[in-house]
Design a protein that fits this description.
seven-stranded antiparallel β-sheet; two-stranded parallel ribbon; alpha+beta; single chain
């Protein structure tokens, strides 16, 4: 007799669990299941004029504005993740931050400079390490204070990651405090898109 009661109780518990999951909807039914992470990528809009300072930079440094490599999305292995962190931190330490008062001049591998100089230098160092330029794009943004700001965006298989001279932390583009304005094309560094 007690075996029959155990079976009945087990059946009722099972039915109650199924009903509770259904009552919670899809989230209840999926509770406890592991889901694949969702990665976020920047969505470009229409083509726009490149920043004039970038046009001048390309005129002075044509090698910096050509496509090198053919990979437009980098697999973020532990080695690649370490390289990103090392480059971001070392460039952030090596360039003394300054505001350009006599007009905006974009430069690479300088001792002192502003945000786009940091971004261009990080891009240059990663390309020198064998990274494809197609996955390394400069973006123009605004800080929460409304100040123009440039960062390096790296397209990975885990989403678009941001290397910013304001922090050594590498973040997903949606996890930053930036308002996004425009970004380089991965296929041609001289072409820019609105965001």
């Amino acid at each position: 007799m007690w075996k029959r009661e155990v079976v009945v109780v087990a059946t009722l518990v099972s039915l109650f669990t199924v009903q509770a999951a259904r009552a919670d909807g899809p989230a209840g039914a999926a509770r406890g299941l592991k889901t694949a992470p969702v990665f976020s990528y920047i969505s470009e809009k229409r083509r726009t004029a490149a920043p004039f300072a970038h046009v001048m930079f390309c005129a002075r440094n044509p090698d910096e504005c050509t496509v090198r490599g053919d990979v437009s999305e980098v697999p973020l292995s532990p080695v690649a993740e370490k390289q990103l962190g090392d480059i971001n931190a070392s460039v952030n330490r090596s360039i003394h931050p300054t505001d350009e008062r006599q007009g905006d001049v974009w430069q690479v591998n300088v001792k002192a400079g502003d945000c786009e100089d940091f971004a261009l230098t990080k891009r240059d160092h990663l390309i020198a390490m064998g990274w494809s330029s197609k996955a390394l794009r400069i973006a123009v943004t605004k800080t929460p204070a409304g100040k123009g700001h440039a960062v390096l965006v790296v397209k990975t298989d885990r989403g678009d990651l941001v290397l910013d001279n304001r922090t050594n932390a590498i973040k997903g583009w949606k996890d930053t405090d930036l308002r996004w304005l425009m970004i380089q094309s991965g296929d041609d560094p001289k072409i820019w898109y609105e965001l």
